[in-house]
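Why this split exists: single-chain examples teach little about how molecules sit against one another. For that reason, every record in the complexes split bundles all components of an assembly together and asks for one structure covering all of them. Below is a record exactly as it appears in the raw files.
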Amino acid sequence: MSETFQCGDHGALITYLYDECAPDERDTIAMHLTQCITCADEVSGLTSTRQALALWAPPAADLGLEIRRKVQAEIAAPGAVLAFTRPQETSIDRSSPWWKAPLPAWAQAAAAVAIFAAGLSIGFMRDGWRGPNEPQTTEVPATVPAAMASKADLANLESQLRTAMAEIPHAAATPVGTPAAAHSDDALLQRVQALIEQSEARQRVEFTERMVRQQGLFEAQRRVDLESMGTRVGRVGDELLRQRQASEELARALNQKLAQPVSQQRP
Amino acid sequence: MTATDEELVARSQGGDIESFNQLIIRWERPIYALAYRVIGREEDARDVCQDTFLRAYRALPGFKGQAKFSSWLYRIALNLCRDWIRRQRRAPVSQMPEDVDAIELAADTGPTESIEDLVARRELSAIVEQAMTQLSEEQRTAIILKEYHGMTFQEIADLQGCPLSTVKTRLYQGLAQLRRHLEQNGQMLPELVKRV
């Protein structure tokens, strides 16, 4: 803050011009401007320049829809959504041992495929290859939908596995079918069944979440579209009104010009 | 009640897409106007505006709220403008219409504005736009942030990463150069301004 103002202090002039100086400094500069023509002219010229700047407007652009669509497309991309949810999803409770932690979906799928392949192998070992016309041990209705068929396949797989595991000791003719081994197999099967059920439940939840997310996106887009339509309708209305006013003004000007020679011809 | 930027940012960080959409609606025009005035090309300004929001969205999980959301957004936009100018390696060129469409002009008139006044306003706007291209990037940006976005000297200094005194110097020199340019080009600036 300065008690006096020196000519050529451009920084102080700018703070005065934009009214960002302290009140006493503003008074000091205002007082100086009443006495110094050079500085007064400077401030006057800069003020006019600022007034001219105020008239510079960027061209109107219908941005919103385009930008929001692209950003929403980015948001809808799986990677982008994960960027927000990943920290919560990947938080692992290190206090529990790793074998108690839930398996990831890919591991569950791999386990299911491995068990399915093992079941098929055991089936072949037991029964040999059956031709396509021979009856199947478990019938699956041909008309079930894909999702149901998958579930039926899993149930079929489970029953096959149970049958195969129960028959293994007899087929191999080895005395390994002790109660402890059977108990271990049952536990394994229960574990596999639990994994499959967990996977199904998780897929159901993910599907529901995806549907809710899509619904939200759809709703947001609908709002954006409605807003844009409203804006455009309003703009067209404004434009029509302006055109009408301009036409009326032109008509008035024309009438005045047409009326002028007639009045001059009169005596 | 309208949600604040901070509230919308917090909700967006929680995965609420609609809140980020609200932020776009709120800030897209100022950001576009900033980009257009800095780089002077309509299409590129659109791209910069779009990239600004995309980058902001990607970086949103890391936004801790130390600065205002708008300042953060302006910083992203200015960085993108700077990158654009570096890529172009030339002074920004404004896309000015060569001819004036009477119907378009009529559609642009205000309720109490005559066509003559409108033509004068358009002319002056074009002159100012042309004059702005003569300034350095730093001067132009400082003037744009001050005149059209109402920032304080301190906010501009933070965005431009320079001392307060430098901002004042840039503003003064930029305005003085603009004034000289307008006067040297035979434009009766005060009369034009008064008339408009």
